[in-house]
Amino acid sequence: MSDLFLLAHEAMGHPSVARCDDCGHQLDAHDAAASCPACGGLLAIVHRAPVDALGAPLNGTALRSSFAQHCCARPVGHPSGVWRFESLVMPGAGASIVSHPEGNTPLLARARIAAYTGCDGLLIKHEGYNPTGSFKDRGMTVGTTQAARIGASAVACASTGNTSASLAAYAAQAGLPGMVFVPEGKVALGKMAQTLAYGATTLLVRGDFDTCLALVQEASRQLGIYLLNSINPWRVEGQKTIVFELLQQLNWEVPEFIVLPAGNLGNTAAFGKALREALALGLIARMPRLVSVQAAGAAPFARAFREGFAQRHRVQAETIATAIRIGDPASWNRAVRAIQETDGLVLSVTDEEIIEAKMVIDAAGVGCEAASAASVAGVRHLVRDGVIRPGDRVVAITTGHVLKDPGMLVSLHQERDDVPGANRPVSIDPTIDAVAAVLAHRMEAR
Ligand code: F0G
């Protein structure tokens, strides 16, 4: 347990430290470094194991009930689905918390989506219900809180769109200047609109996401802007709460599979850390299997999985799911660990499969952005391959809201003529006869 939590004597009065994955170098939790100053490796936050008011260790049942106590419906509760888990995210954050609030997203059971995948036990954890419409808000509330408490002068990130929308909103709330680096021409309209509206300085970089990430890291090093990408260890802490919250919603009964879309692999890494901690603390009795799903045109991690993770790959990424159009994922080693420790799987699905799954999710009245649908497409794939059985309990994460990409919706429903299930709007004269004719046609088609 010692690499997962600080022992009392190691903590030296601090509830958390940042520790390098590669060389073990340790930094104070209030250090602004985005990576290890000794070797350049990624930093991870290690907390003191949770204790009760008298200092006795809290685990298993007692810890579960402390989370329930902090549920938003309770008088001592917290309205955020991230900060309810403060003791495992940023203990002692106290008055510096910058929260909208976020989290508390639903677990949806939808017969039509389940039938599409062939898995009756499918549940959708819809992170599109977050304040800026994506799961990024969970990491951003913690990252921005850290920026505020260390007195950062400005915050920045590279993004395919959702991180930038989230950073823009949280920076505005914290009163910090925000700067985002996005690949020019490759960000969905809704995300770009949010970023501009919330007031972040928006740099349209002539290059792809991987180029943006390298540039913002250099800018952070040279110009002292606080980096808020998912390599920021506090972002990871926030994103862990997707797992804590879904387990709590399932009464801590572990599903067979948790399936999520993957790009830069920050979320896969965060899920691995959350599950490792949950198991060590006795919150859960066993690991679920983690499944990361990439788009076929941006699938270096899926390729490496097929080769037994013998080597790291980089690709020139291309996919209709712009959120996960990433060729050189940053959190690679951590994601490998997450997959290995959970007996997990990585697969890729084609753009056609992603769009087909998205149309099913949208038409069920749930809706999500394209990248999110990769998880559902992945479940369908694994049911067909006999890996997921129809009765298994499976939680698929949908990561972003349907309105993130209105341009794609217009294209699918109004412009393209090769999309089965396209829902064309009908132009009519303002007469009741015209309405009646459309209605009759519609009823006939049922
Ligand atoms: N789904 C959506 C909607 C995303 O926006 C992202 C990542 C992912 C899945 C993949 O998550 O990178 O942790 O593996 N979007 C980032 C961004 C890269 O800039 O918004 P990941």
Instruction: List each distinct ligand once.
Output: ligand F0G
Order of H and E elements: EHEEEHEHEHEHEHEHEHHEHEHHEHHEHH
Class inferred from helices and paired strands: alpha/beta
Indicate the proportion of strand residues.
5-15%
Any low-confidence stretches, pLDDT <50, length ≥5?
none
User: Whole-Å distance between the termini?
Assistant: 58 Å
Total strand segments: 14
Radius of gyration: 22 Å
Structure description:
Helices cover 39% and strands 14% of the residues. The strands form three sheets. The protein has a six-stranded mixed β-sheet, with helices on both faces. It has a four-stranded mixed β-sheet with strand order 1-4-2-3. With 446 residues, the protein is an alpha/beta fold. The protein is built from 16 helices and 14 strands. Ligand F0G binds next to helix 5, helix 10 and helix 14.
